[in-house]
Amino acid sequence: MLKIRLLVAALAMTGSLSASAAESLPASAPAPENNPTTAEKVSLGKMLYHDPRLSSTGTVACASCHNTMLGGEDNRPNSMGVNGQTGGRSAPTVWNAAFNAVQFWDGRAASLEEQAAGPVTNPIEMGMKSWDDVVARLKTIEGYQDAFEKAFGKDSISKDNATKAIAAYERTLITPNSAYDKYVEGNTNAMTEQQVRGMKKAVEIGCTSCHSGPAFNGAGMFQKFPVNSNGYFEAQYHFQKDLGRAEVTKSDADKHFWKVPTLRNVALTAPYFHNGSVKTLDRAVWLMAKLQLNKELSDAEVADIVAFLNALSGEFPTQSMPHLPGTPGKAFN
Amino acid sequence: MLKIRLLVAALAMTGSLSASAAESLPASAPAPENNPTTAEKVSLGKMLYHDPRLSSTGTVACASCHNTMLGGEDNRPNSMGVNGQTGGRSAPTVWNAAFNAVQFWDGRAASLEEQAAGPVTNPIEMGMKSWDDVVARLKTIEGYQDAFEKAFGKDSISKDNATKAIAAYERTLITPNSAYDKYVEGNTNAMTEQQVRGMKKAVEIGCTSCHSGPAFNGAGMFQKFPVNSNGYFEAQYHFQKDLGRAEVTKSDADKHFWKVPTLRNVALTAPYFHNGSVKTLDRAVWLMAKLQLNKELSDAEVADIVAFLNALSGEFPTQSMPHLPGTPGKAFN
């Protein structure tokens, strides 16, 4: 326990970090008052989340881009929606998304429920014309009538309930027991010396000023990215092509502001940044220090921080595959 | 038991069906001598089968078109591969494919192992340039090095072993205990009166001459389809656009010949036929009788046979989701 106290003290001393940064990941996520988590909702939500019939072509599920068998996204620079279309942003991980105060890179959704409604009718993502069409399709599938009834009562297939169920399922997607979690819970052998060194460096240079809290996601903070850029970096990575939060708010003050993304499982979610333009975590760490903190890290410092970030990869819970209900004798649409 | 014996006798009386048609689905599938099924191969095969990184874009897994959460295919007329491309044929179900003597609609693969190699490098399916590229990519993923080692020994990542593992996994995808299976095992209440009537009608008109054996797949038989067509049907369904087995053998004698597909879970695999041109099972049954057997079924007869075919939907085993290994800190390709 002594080392832990020392760590917390060390973290607090930086002035830019509260002691809460040394908290381990909670085992469960809070649910909003109007959508308490139940086993029936989670079961239905898991079906909907993995069902490609929520897309116009029947080929793209939530899980296609936010892959629950991988690090919660698709390892692509940007995702591929219906008919091979791609957008400009990289899919954020669904793992531990329940701990984000807002959703989407630009924070335009205030909840998982609100987020879940978006991609389904986005023409380059899942491509459904409207949620009315989704609801009509789900109503033709007897197994969904039953699953909604169990979760929400009779004749309850609706956009509102579908997104509530998906959000309830997503709240179960938590990856506890990373090396870091074990370390802050008192097992001082859980992290290597290099990882501890990397953690201290990350705190010292200021990474955790923004990537704060147990999910290292700034608890709803928006930050400008990049802060200190120039033509050289822009030509390589095109970070400033996308206005970020300003695309939503239409306010100049929000130009290039982004939700602070979680660092949990970051080693598993390459490529990096909002546009997925950086292929490796080494480079991402170096760029963050340079562009955000105006620090040029040595290779050794980068390696230490990367080692620490690998200590944030958690345990992925074993999940059963949902059995998706069929439409006996009929094509789904 | 009396009823069963009567049934078997009735089936045998038709002259076109051996008593073996009344066998229930075996609980396990035979494996070839050079690829005995092991838990380690099945575990690796399940990972590979669900991993979209086996495609050029990282978006299409075996499971994308042969969906293990659905009826083993995608409910589309024809599947959608990388970059939104589509082909001319409908994905066959992976469930019980282990009982097919040959694979693909045109039977061009003699085994599940051979089949598994095909789509990965098909430019409109998974789009990898070569299996060498697949192997090179898998070798960059540490978790796959371990999983191959457990299944096949040290440094064993290869096309041969990858397809063996996928085939070993597919041999576990069996759906036993359908109403029909329970019926032929002695539970005469397992099928409804209508289902029994439909079964007898299917035998009587000759469906089971080709759809024979416990998987109702003709055990490797090729048959011409359509046999008795005309311009009216061709204009609607374009069945003859595709030469079928002749595309492989280049022999005129094989024009419009197809592997007899399984009827197991057929109620879950709409739309129907090699080109997925028929949306409902009712219509598929009517067309089969008309085009293959030159019989015009009444609506009641169609309904009875469809009821029977629904009795062939089996129990889908509960499966855990594989956890796909990441490439820490690097984009997968």
UniProtKB/TrEMBL annotation, chains A, B:
Obligatory cofactor(s)? heme
Q: Which biological pathway?
A: One-carbon metabolism; methylamine degradation
Q: Which residues form the Cytochrome c domain?
A: 40-313
Could you describe the post-translational modifications of this protein?
Answer: Binds 2 heme groups per subunit.
Residues annotated as binding heme c 1: 62, 65-66
Give the principal location in a single coarse category.
periplasm
One example of the protein's molecular function in GO is:
heme binding
Q: Mind telling me which GO cellular component terms the entry cites?
A: periplasmic space
Family matches, as PANTHER family: CYTOCHROME C PEROXIDASE-RELATED
**Known function:** Involved in methylamine metabolism. Essential for the maturation of the beta subunit of MADH, presumably via a step in the biosynthesis of tryptophan tryptophylquinone (TTQ), the cofactor of MADH.
Q: What is this protein called?
A: Methylamine utilization protein MauG
Species source reads Methylomonas koyamae
